[in-house]
Amino acid sequence: MEWREQVRAGFATLDAPDEYRERALAYLEQWMTGEEFRDYRPQLEWLIQQRRWPGLLDRFYRILPFGTGGRRGPVGIGPNRMNPWTVTASVQGHCDYLRLRFAEELGRDKRLRVVVAYDVRRFEDQNRQYNPALPNPVLGLSSRDFAQLAAEVYAANGIETVLLPPGSSRYLATPELSFAIRYYGAHGGLNISASHNPPDDNGAKFYVQHGGQPVPPEDQVMSDCVDRVTGIRRLPFAEALQQGWIVPYEEEAHREYVQTNLRQSLLGAARPNELTVIYTPLHGVGRFSVLEVLQQQRVRVVPVEKQMEPNGLFPHTRSANPEMAVAFEEALELARQTPQAELILASDPDADRLGAMARMRSGEWRFLTGNEIAAVLTHFKLTQLRQQGRWPASPLVVKTEVTTNLVTRIARHFGCAVVDDLLVGFKFIADVLWQLESAGRYRDYYGTPDDFLIGCEESHGILITPAIRDKDATGAALLLTEAALYQKRRGLTLVEYLEQLYREFGYFRNVLCNVQLPGQLADYQKMRRLGQALDTLRRNPPKELAGWEVVHFDDYLRPDSRFGPILGETDRQGRNVLVFHLRPAQREADVEGHESPQPVARQTAKVCVADKDGLSARLIFRPSGTEPKAKCYVEVATPPALPHTSRQDWSALCHQVDELAEKLGRSFVQLAHRLAGENY
Fold it and tell me: What is the pTM of this model?
């Protein structure tokens, strides 16, 4: 049977829309017959011979979405994978976008410039998707290789690339790229990285002139430029280098990035051996940023040697994601052998997120969530600035909506303006800074970037200076070590400091639940079913959830939401968010038999400030922007504790709130699975 008939018959056996099958056949035809794809054919023929129909359909039913500023996904063969074709097509589209946006400067014969960074990844097909005995053009491709391909495309389009010199053993952290775009006066940037995704993934993330990522509608303009690409221009790397289109990233730029972070210090350098910190970059690039800044602050850093070497296979950790406690296993073992250690820090592979564990009074270690880190750093910085007389004219704190509202309570206590309802993505925090820089206002707030104090997101992203326009593990690490040091000087642990904040401002329990469908389903099937669940909830939002009454429901896709009309497909993706505002139901149980939180609400009134609302809760549901799953963000909060509240009563209340939040999350995940057609 001829391969076309064989594939068509194979696709017919799959549970997929007809349009997916037809589109996959059309793209597969291009890759099986086009001269530019000839190197991929041995593997494609093998996949067809092996009847890998679900995998083939998933590789070819679409072009990997450009999304909201870039592409990210598994490295592999086909238009729905990261490979030289998808990367160079993205870069060609970015070139076209830059020429469109900066046509006036080109008319003045000004050369356009970008900064390109890359992480430690290298594709080794750990999931064994391909035949190791056959030629495979993507096997062994590193982020550096993709970055050099990108530089070839930029050069062929007359755009200068600032890139680490060939053969350099250094890497740029994502926040250093953001800083460098501004430092060099570049017109944009590109980061080849998949952050803490699995080892076989990679990504291409684009930046705009102010150092952040594009937001709607600008990201739609960029996406449209990528979609319109029909041909890709490339100039061989050696020629581009010789002709001056590729220029080396300067050491002075790196030094200025480090100094920019050091200038954010609130306490100055520590005394020798005053604070001992265990640190791991989790095989990523943090040794070139986080470690350097901590050492210059004279913090005694004990590195996790096994994980210091950059290695995209992440061999000595079960997870390279510092949002997960499992990522700290090696560091925790070292900390237990280092009795003077008081803090463990871990940065993710591209060193923009920071995770932490803190030693408790008992000697045990406690993992700090991204929300807890955000609250601690917000309170610590605001306290220090006020005590030191460094308070700006119009102090501003910024966070995404899914980040704990404890940050909002703290900021308002200090009299700060707060932007606390941004969509998920640090680019929206960067956009607030850009609006202040370019227009002197954001919504009804008037100020300058110098008024910005801190930006936070629940997924361990922190920014403490407007000189950088992306989350930065380096600045977060500096501030968190200083917070720990300051509490140590007061005779407190960092955990005790956090507990004080909960009593003063209210206890907030934040739970993140993932809605993940069975592994035997292809990604396109998972996305389709999750979309059905979201649409059902959108059309018929529940009146109660696990004993909580839904008092208000928001659908951010609605044109009458606070975001207004949809600005394009990228805006639609980011706004695919449902928000449920909750309070304890008046009945003792809801229609499904869930007990109401009313007893806990009554307990709250006994130990907390009189508050007619008592307990409050919020649940936010949205699809992941990078993986075939959906995320459910739960928050249950109490008012502050009364001064006479005993430790025992307060602890009991917090424990009950924990249980309520976990129960609410579990109940909603079960509901989402049912709506997606799966038992849970």
Answer: 0.94
d(CA 145, CA 75) in angstroms, rounded, equals 13
Residue 416, SS3? coil
Among 111, 208, 209, 183, which residue's Cα sits nearest to residue 154? 111
Distance (Å, whole) CA 680 – CA 669: 8
What's the CA gap between 551 and 544, in Å, rounded?
A: 9
- 387 contacts: CB under 8 Å, gap ≥ 6: none
Q: Which residue has the tokens 């642990």?
A: 493
The predicted-structure confidence for 593-624, as pLDDT tens digits, reads as follows 566 676 776 667 666 654 545 899 999 999 98
Half-sphere exposure of 613 (CA within 13 A, CB side): 12
How confident is the model over 284-343, as pLDDT tens digits? 999 999 999 999 999 999 999 999 999 999 999 999 999 999 999 999 999 999 999 999
Angle between helices 41-49 and 18-33 (to 10 degrees): 140
> Cα separation of 188 and 132, whole Å?
38
Helix (H, G, I), strand (E, B) or coil at 116: strand
Question: Going from the N-terminus, what domains does the chain have, and what CATH number goes with each?
Answer: 1-62 (no CATH), 82-249 (3.40.120.10), 259-504 (3.40.120.10), 506-675 (no CATH)
Structure tokens that stand for 224 in this block: 């449209």
Q: Give, as one character, the DSSP assignment of residue 477.
A: H
